[in-house]
Amino acid sequence: MKKHFAITVPLTLSFFIFDQFTKWIAANSFRNPLEIFSFFRLIYRENTGIAWSLPVPSAFLIPLVIAIIVMIIHFAYKNLDFRQNMSSIVLSLILGGAIGNLYDRITLGYVIDFISVGSWPVFNLADTFLVVGIFLLIAFYGKIKKVSK
């Protein structure tokens, strides 16, 4: 279990810091959209809602996100085999993304989004970390789940 913490904690912290750094760049550089390709832009947005900017009062949202983070940690420790490094990577991606957006909500009252692809809603790296982490969890679950003895 100590090996797991030695991997998961620094990796989660790295994802969180990278997310916050990119949001800082977005807040200071992308107030005017930067078009990279016709379908890909970097543009600053303040998202007070949840996924796809769905409106939810922050009085409910912050406790909800904290509860979800606790449930993710509980699920991971009950169901994932941390002798497999992929378990640490999956958990770190999900926690790094969730904590990055939670930190924004607590400190700013909104989440900074800045990546615009086609007609998809604007998102950020924390969102990407969450999606990739959940995808990897699903894709590798058979290999990283605890085996019943």
Number of strands: 3
Report the radius of gyration as a whole number of Å: 16 Å
Strand portion: 5-15%
As laid out across the biggest beta sheet, the strand order is: 1-2-3
Extract low-pLDDT stretches. none
Q: Quaternary state, please? A: single chain
User: Can you tell me the overall shape?
Assistant: globular
Domain count: the total is 1
Gap from first CA to last CA: 18 Å
Mean pLDDT, as a whole number?
91
Major sheet: size, sense and barrel closure? 3 strands, antiparallel
User: N-to-C SSE series?
Assistant: HEEHHEH
User: What is the percent of helical residues?
Assistant: 55-70%
Count the DSSP helices: 4
Structural class designation: alpha+beta
Element layout with pairings:
Blueprint: H1 2-29, E1 34-37, E2 40-47, H2 58-79, H3 85-108, E3 111-117, H4 125-144
Antiparallel strand pairs: 1-2, 2-3
Can you describe what's shown?
This protein has 149 residues and is α+β, with helices and mostly antiparallel strands. The chain has one domain. 63% of the residues lie in helices and 13% in strands. The chain contains four helices and three strands; from the N terminus they run αββααβα. Strands 1-2-3 form a three-stranded antiparallel beta sheet. A hairpin with a 2-residue loop joins strand 1 and strand 2. Helix 1 packs across helix 3, helix 2 runs antiparallel to helix 3 and helix 3 packs antiparallel against helix 4.
